[in-house]
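The passage that follows is intended for readers who have already worked through the single-chain material. We present the inputs for a multi-component assembly, then the predicted structure in tokenized form, and finally a short commentary. You are encouraged to pause after the input and sketch how you expect the pieces to fit together before reading on.
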Amino acid sequence: MKPAPFDYYAPETLEQAVALLEKLENEDVDAKIIAGGQSLMPMLNLRMARPDALVDLGKIKTLDYIRQENGTIVIGAMTSKRAAEDSTLLRDRQPLLHAATGHIGHRQIRNQGTVGGSFAHADPAAEYGAVAQALGMEMVVVGPDGERIIPADEFYLSFLTTDIDATEVLTEVRAPIMPDNTGWAFQEVCRRKGDLAMAGTAVTLRLEAGSCAEVVIAVFGVNATAARLPEAEQVVNGQAPGEAIFAQAGEAAAAALDEPIADVHATADYRRSLIATLVKRCLAEAVERCA
Ligand SMILES: Cc1cc2nc3c(=O)[nH]c(=O)nc-3n(C[C@H](O)[C@H](O)[C@H](O)COP(=O)(O)OP(=O)(O)OC[C@H]3O[C@@H](n4cnc5c(N)ncnc54)[C@H](O)[C@@H]3O)c2cc1C
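Having made your guess, compare it with the prediction:
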């Protein structure tokens, strides 16, 4: 199928894009931002989305960067996922975000798809959702009233829905650099490499005097939005690392899932079982990295 007709705009600056989005909103025109088009184009072609207008951010080159600012890695929204995958800065200073990037789709998709687009699209099975929760990332949006910074736990509202307003552009994502001695792990299960995950887990933790501390466990692909699971984190916090305690945390994570997604790819029970296993494995891997 082909998309329903739409008007097309290609602003050259962020200011132009925001002014245009505000104008279209005031005129009651249903406008949608397009970045890499890797999620939106299929939705347009399948007519799952029928906006009146597309605002293409492709010409706004000022939103394409990866840099370190003090203790944070900042990534412009129009940076391609390929650039993130190839970034030695990201690999060395924010390895969890870097590792998750390599799991997103196929190389062709990472060439074209943007980092900002992946956060903004808010697919429940998107790797970045769990990374955002695990790292306590921040999203920067710019609209007619200026800049807003949205913490990850307020950014994702529901299935394919974020706190970005119709007149706002996501301009940057910020990931704090993990303190020294932090272990991390990222694992997912897909039917085939490059598919969206049926379930996945991101973990960070530290070892203090032989015990696990500051344990963070985030899961994705199982509910409408990625989320941390404090019930599972509590099982491990303050405990000596070991297979039995990790298995217990996995069971706690599975039990904490509220009605996991059931679809053609996996039943709810299978997703629960995947989370129990992935949490257990990620905890063990994260502890190894601490060492
Ligand atoms: C075969 C296939 C496999 C895939 N596998 C995965 C996978 O495993 N994991 C995964 O996470 N994704 C996967 N994707 C999706 C892919 O990662 C997309 O690139 C990504 O979801 C969207 O990025 P984009 O730049 O292409 O955004 P677009 O498709 O252009 O836009 C997506 C949505 O985000 C909004 N948007 C984009 N940029 C901004 C912005 N700066 N400000 C505000 N709103 C914005 C758009 O309005 C739209 O609603 C896959 C896609 C395909 C086709």
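Commentary: The two ends are 53 Å apart (CA to CA). The first helix runs from residue 14 to 26. How closely did your sketch match?
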